[in-house]
């Protein structure tokens, strides 16, 4: 039965022996008997001894085999090369040796038998027997030939106990020496001189392989593989998949990469880079085209929303509206032709036809508050003003023009503004007036925004256009911008206070105690916010101090506005006209207030200043 040379355990077969060695001893700490190397596997230790200590073994005493004392025990034989020049040396003479003492240079604790192939006895003295020489291997390494001892159980147990004690003693002592790793294999040495000798052996093997040719290299590789470790070193190129057998060949190969082969390697990278850039450019081009289409669509939507899509102005919209009414049966052809003729006549004269106008509303409001205003402490109303509603020709975009008509209807009733046109102009005529104001140099930025053209479009106008046309008509006006909320819940209490100051300041002149309902001589205030505009015609102050605006909305039809003229229905319409602070929650509001007439010098100054038109901001 095979016996383990390390722990002397008997095993039933060679397969069991291999499994035992791998599981019990391959991963344990092993120490070199000639130096301080440890912590390597069995194959690495064998390779280390056969390469680093070849000369030391030849200078020591001859390899001995100690008989175990049994007659049927086999001899332990070993053969080593005596030098690097001679490949095989037969060990013939054997000497009697005693058990290794602590002072002896022989291997420690009986571990030599598992590494060098010699068998040492635990007895104090034994007789040395001769053994036939073993065949030398191709690489000159020591080949171990082991036999199964047939000693008695007591002798085997003693050897086993002694080796276990020596093994435990070796494992219990920590290794604190510095370790040196071989750069050409996984060997670790504790002595730098041993590592130097080991590396020199590597270099000698490489030179021998290169000089001997392919046949010698194959033989060396096969011989080394038989010992469990490959002696042929392979160096992989970091730039390709080539594997070289020597460092010099690898160096020449890498230099070819860097010199001649760099062009081809760069070519592949350049092709990849070119492809990547091409794909990126295509992606960016697609993104730019999509962004351009999206911007064009958004711009068209904005043009359509603000009436700049060249779809026609007041006249075309009025004609299309009447044609749809005829096609739906809501209007007979005779009425269509009559209304179209009236429209063309009004456009030719430049005056509004008055179909959407409602007069006498401010006077009716004054009567209403004098009769039914128990919850109001004070009420201020503007001068008499006509209400102009949006018609079929300007529905959806004409609120700014209609509020300007309301303002002009109030100014026409005041003597100081007798220089203005006698009648209220139509919407196409108001567009022409704004273009004339731009022609005089007023608000060049606004003119550029509309491309200096309003007639024949459905363009929206705002506070700046109203200011420009009033300046061109010699009317003094100012724009006040309430650009952010000043109260809780995004409300504008400062706007309400400003409107109260506007109406109450003129009404309190020369009066110690103003009356409860006051109709002033002031024109209405143009109120603009995002998407819509209205006219402020009055202000209520409740008993509890809350302020409320009274608004004329161009979106309210003439039929609804006429309900203010009747005392029975006036209360319902007044409730619709009221706007408390919580009802105005747009982020920004602008107002245009008329303050008198302009002298020629003031007009020229305001036109020049309108090049960089700045509104008065509150707060």
From TrEMBL:
Its EC number is 3.4.19.12. Residues 98-107, 124-141 have a biased composition (Low complexity). Residues 61-90 have a biased composition (Polar residues). Residues 57-90, 97-116, 121-170, 206-227 are annotated as: Disordered. GO terms for cellular component: cytoplasm; nucleus. It catalyses: Thiol-dependent hydrolysis of ester, thioester, amide, peptide and isopeptide bonds formed by the C-terminal Gly of ubiquitin (a 76-residue protein attached to proteins as an intracellular targeting signal). InterPro entries: UFSP1/2_DUB_cat, Znf_C2H2_sf, Znf_C2H2_type. One of its GO terms (molecular function) is zinc ion binding. The keyword Repeat applies. It comes from the Eukaryota. Keywords: Acetylation, Cytoplasm, Hydrolase, Metal-binding, Nucleus, Repeat, Zinc, Zinc-finger. Residues 235-262 form the C2H2-type domain. It is found in: Cytoplasm; Nucleus. SMART domains: ZnF_C2H2 (SM00355). Pfam families: Peptidase_C78. Deubiquitinase with endodeubiquitinase activity that specifically interacts with and cleaves 'Lys-63'-linked long polyubiquitin chains. Shows only weak activity against 'Lys-11' and 'Lys-48'-linked chains. Plays an important role in genome stability pathways, functioning to prevent spontaneous DNA damage and also promote cellular survival in response to exogenous DNA damage. Modulates the ubiquitination status of replication protein A (RPA) complex proteins in response to replication stress. Belongs to the peptidase C78 family. ZUFSP subfamily. Interacts with RPA1 and RPA2. This is Zinc finger-containing ubiquitin peptidase 1. It comes from Carassius auratus (Goldfish).
